[in-house]
């Protein structure tokens, strides 16, 4: 008898649960019917001609440094198809966690309190000294190239919500229509790319390892500001600049454009200075500078260089990467292999130059020799000879006159680097400023006193940090420096 009672109780409980579920469902339906349609839904429905739940979402994700370029692309698209359209936004504390299509569907069914609001705007850099406003979270009603109504949404990066990209959403009644709009926006973005022709520096934030791109000003330098042995700068320019100048004609003759340049030599001899000169000479080329921890983004940098060609990718102190053997017992570390693979994979037809600098060519030679073709020109940047040291004195003196016979300074500075001379001239100017308010000339006495200080025993570490080997390298012929 007890088993029958238990069975009856279970049947009654199931029936009660079903009845309660029906009551709740009917109550929800009645509640929805009694609530007014949100203004957000009314605006979108009136434009697209269907329920938000019927819209198809076509999306594209872009890295954070593309925010300004995407905004330019969207603005250009709107100017072509709906120049009077206005951006609007969504309010609701869950909006950052949900996709745009889900937000609109939930708003239509009154599941969440998503309401019509203003678009969020933020700023993004477009050069080393300028920025522009971009949509951080918003949408706009527009049309496809053939006139179909669509909604375009843009959401910027939001690290605290786990979104590290810029997201473009196209919502349309037809997927093909959304895809056509997305393709045109992407084409306009590429045409109006703010990164093209800029000097860019890759970096990394401490939060979630994001890739960061900073804009740097383009250096302005003349060839006379680069002191190298005769013919060296000409060789470098021919390899980097001339190939770009004759790119179309080289292609017509079946010649490849991608090139790799290795600048090697002791610290402080002018490798970075030479790179800055190349940046100055390649006006219009995109330059991407990578160093330190940012090298883990070398694949992204290579892809960016191909997209923005003509381009130069500068990898500084590449020997530090080669000496990282944490995952390889010989042949260098994994980052070096990633770099070499990126150099090889960019394509021979690409007008892209990889410029590597190193203080230790021996740390790279085996890896580069095992993968021929990545670097097709290696140039040593040595410590300057006597003629070079005399030229460096004149260079860093700037508009100051050099008085007297400075041959002794040139001779005693044998083994010094460009960095050493730069500091030597600053100290000499400081000595001259102690004597008079305005300095128009430096004497041999000023330079000799500063040199005496810099070559003293207590400044041995200073000389090392400046890459100098004063007193080690045998002096060359000592020219006379005219006053």
Quick structural overview:
By secondary structure, this protein is of the alpha/beta class. It has helices at 2-34, 39-48, 67-81, 100-108, 175-191, 232-245, 247-252, 271-281, 298-307, 318-322, 334-345, 362-370, 386-397, 407-412, 418-435, 444-454, 460-465; strands spanning 56-62, 89-91, 115-117, 120-127, 130-143, 149-155, 166-172, 199-204, 211-216, 259-264, 286-290, 311-315, 352-358, 377-380, 401-403, 441-443. Helices cover 42% and strands 19% of the residues.
Task: Explain how this protein is built.
The protein is an alpha/beta fold and 483 residues long. It folds into three domains: 39-188, no CATH class; 213-380, P-loop containing nucleotide triphosphate hydrolases (Rossmann fold, 3-Layer(aba) Sandwich), CATH 3.40.50; 386-465, Orthogonal Bundle (Helicase, Ruva Protein, domain 3). The protein has helices spanning 2-34, 39-48, 67-81, 100-108, 175-191, 232-245, 247-252, 271-281, 298-307, 318-322, 334-345, 362-370, 386-397, 407-412, 418-435, 444-454, 460-465; strands at residues 56-62, 89-91, 115-117, 120-127, 130-143, 149-155, 166-172, 199-204, 211-216, 259-264, 286-290, 311-315, 352-358, 377-380, 401-403, 441-443. Strands 9-8-11-12-13-10-14 form a seven-stranded mixed β-sheet, sandwiched between helices. The chain has a five-stranded antiparallel β-sheet with strand order 1-7-6-5-4, with helices on both faces. The protein has a two-stranded antiparallel ribbon with strand order 2-3. A hairpin with a 6-residue loop joins strand 8 and strand 9 (211-216).
């Amino acid at each position: 008898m007890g088993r029958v009672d238990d069975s009856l109780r279970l049947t009654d409980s199931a029936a009660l649960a079903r009845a309660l579920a029906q009551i709740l469902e009917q109550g929800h339906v009645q509640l929805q019917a009694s609530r007014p349609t949100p203004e957000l839904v009314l605006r979108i429905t009136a434009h697209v001609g269907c329920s938000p739940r019927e819209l198809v979402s076509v999306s594209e994700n872009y890295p954070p440094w593309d925010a300004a370029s995407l905004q330019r692309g969207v603005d250009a698209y709107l100017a072509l198809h709906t120049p009077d359209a206005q951006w609007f936004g969504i309010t609701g504390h869950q909006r950052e966690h949900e996709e745009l299509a889900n937000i609109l569907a939930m708003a239509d069914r009154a599941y969440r309190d998503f309401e019509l609001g203003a678009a969020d705007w933020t700023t993004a850099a477009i050069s080393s000294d300028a920025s522009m406003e971009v949509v951080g979270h918003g949408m706009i009603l527009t049309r496809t190239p053939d006139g179909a109504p669509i909604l375009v949404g843009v959401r910027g990066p939001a690290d605290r919500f786990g979104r590290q990209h810029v997201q473009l959403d196209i919502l349309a009644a037809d997927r093909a229509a959304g895809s056509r709009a997305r393709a045109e926006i992407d084409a306009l973005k590429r045409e109006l790319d703010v990164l093209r022709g800029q000097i860019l520096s890759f970096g990394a934030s401490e939060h979630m390892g994001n890739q960061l791109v900073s804009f740097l000003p383009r250096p302005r330098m003349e060839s006379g500001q680069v002191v190298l042995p005769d013919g060296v700068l000409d060789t470098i320019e021919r390899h980097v600049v001339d190939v770009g100048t004759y790119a179309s004609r080289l292609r017509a003759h079946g010649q490849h454009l991608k090139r790799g340049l290795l600048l090697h030599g002791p610290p402080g001899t002018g490798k970075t200075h030479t790179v800055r000169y190349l940046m100055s000479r390649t006006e219009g080329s995109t330059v991407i500078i990578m160093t330190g921890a940012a090298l883990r983004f070398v694949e992204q940098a290579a892809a960016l260089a191909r997209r923005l060609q003509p381009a130069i990718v500068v990898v500084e102190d590449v020997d530090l990467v080669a000496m990282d053997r944490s995952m390889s017992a010989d042949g260098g570390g994994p980052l070096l292999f990633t770099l070499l693979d990126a150099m090889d994979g960019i394509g021979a037809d690409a007008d892209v130059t990889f410029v590597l600098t190193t203080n230790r060519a021996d740390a790279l030679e085996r890896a580069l020799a095992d993968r021929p073709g990545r670097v097709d020109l290696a140039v040593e940047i040595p410590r300057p000879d006597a003629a070079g040291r005399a030229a460096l004195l004149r260079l860093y003196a700037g508009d100051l006159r050099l008085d007297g016979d400075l041959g002794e300074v040139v001779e005693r500075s044998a083994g010094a680097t460009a960095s050493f001379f730069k500091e030597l001239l600053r100290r000499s100017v400081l000595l001259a400023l102690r004597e008079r308010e305005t300095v128009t000339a430096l004497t041999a006495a000023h330079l000799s006193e500063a040199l005496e200080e810099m070559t003293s025993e207590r400044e041995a570490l200073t000389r090392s940090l400046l890459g100098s080997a004063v007193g080690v390298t045998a002096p060359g012929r000592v020219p006379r420096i005219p006053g």
